[in-house]
From TrEMBL:
PANTHER family noted in UniProt: GRPE PROTEIN, GRPE PROTEIN HOMOLOG, MITOCHONDRIAL
GO cellular component, one term: cytoplasm
UniProt name for this protein: Protein GrpE
Gene Ontology MF: a single term: protein homodimerization activity
PROSITE patterns: GRPE
Biased composition (Polar residues): 17-27, 53-74
Taxonomic path: Bacteria, Pseudomonadati, Spirochaetota, Spirochaetia, Spirochaetales
Gene: grpE
Gene3D superfamilies: 3.90.20.20, Head domain of nucleotide exchange factor GrpE
Family: Belongs to the GrpE family.
Family matches, as Pfam families: GrpE
A biological process term (GO) from this entry: protein folding
Subunit note: Homodimer.
Stretch list, region Disordered: 1-86
Length: 244
């Protein structure tokens, strides 16, 4: 009896540590699972909170859709009726009259501008030689003084009078040449050129082999590079050689 009781007691002691080890193993596994998912409870709570927020968003979306349809309804109420044909015709007639008035004003302005331009051009032509005439007035004064001096001096002062006239002529020539570009060109003994010479008379001559200016009857002048007045000349024409 004592041996059986002792053996049974040993078996019970062995069974209790095994059960205790199993409980410890389950506790350790549970702890590891908790460590692996520390936010497990938070995820569940987030899902619970997400549902009300989604419902709130759906409500706001519905309100927005309702707000979009409201202005369209108000716009349809404020739409003005289309004008009638008579009103359109009256508007077009008013616009046409306005454009016609603008055209008439522009035409009148252009006509006045054209008249001013014609008047200005004519004035420019009429007074183009103002500077030249002003310069020539001094020469006229010199001629007047020379004539008065000749009348008072008598016949003995003919040489002095001639000298005064020469001086006046020299002053006029110098003025026109230096200020206005007037140039006198020589023609005596030059080959005849119809572009710058005007033949007044001709004479045959055995001394020339081509038409040549024999005498200058009136001086020719150039204004800068343009012929202002061709020189009037007598032309010497070569005579044909006599046959033996």
């Amino acid at each position: 009896m004592t041996k059986k009781h002792g053996k049974k007691h040993e078996q019970e002691c062995e069974t209790q540590p095994a059960e205790q080890n199993g409980m410890n193993t389950d506790s350790a596994a549970g702890k590891k699972a908790a460590d692996a998912n520390p936010h497990g409870n938070s995820t569940g709570n987030a899902e619970q909170h997400a549902a009300p927020e989604q419902q709130t968003g759906n409500q706001e979306h519905g309100n927005t859709a309702t707000g979009q349809t409201a202005p369209n309804t108000e716009a349809s109420k404020d739409t003005k009726p289309e004008p009638s044909a008579a009103e359109k015709l009256a508007s077009l007639e008013a616009k046409c009259k306005e454009l016609q008035d603008q055209y008439l004003r522009k035409a009148a302005d252009f006509d006045n501008y054209r008249k001013r331009m014609i008047k200005g051009k004519q004035e420019a032509i009429d007074y183009a030689n103002t500077n030249l005439i002003s310069d020539l007035l001094q020469i006229l004064d010199d001629f007047d003084r020379a004539i008065e001096a000749g009348k008072k001096a008598g016949e003995d002062s003919a040489a002095a009078f001639m000298q005064g006239v020469v001086m006046i002529r020299s002053g006029l020539s110098s003025l026109l040449e230096s200020k206005y570009g007037l140039q006198y060109y020589e023609v005596q003994g030059k080959p005849f050129n119809p572009d710058i010479h005007e033949a007044v008379a001709t004479n045959p001559s055995a001394e020339v082999t081509e038409p040549t200016v024999g005498a200058e009857l009136q001086k020719g002048y150039k204004l800068k590079e343009r012929i202002l007045r061709p020189a009037k000349v007598m032309v010497l024409m070569p005579t044909p050689a006599e046959k033996k």
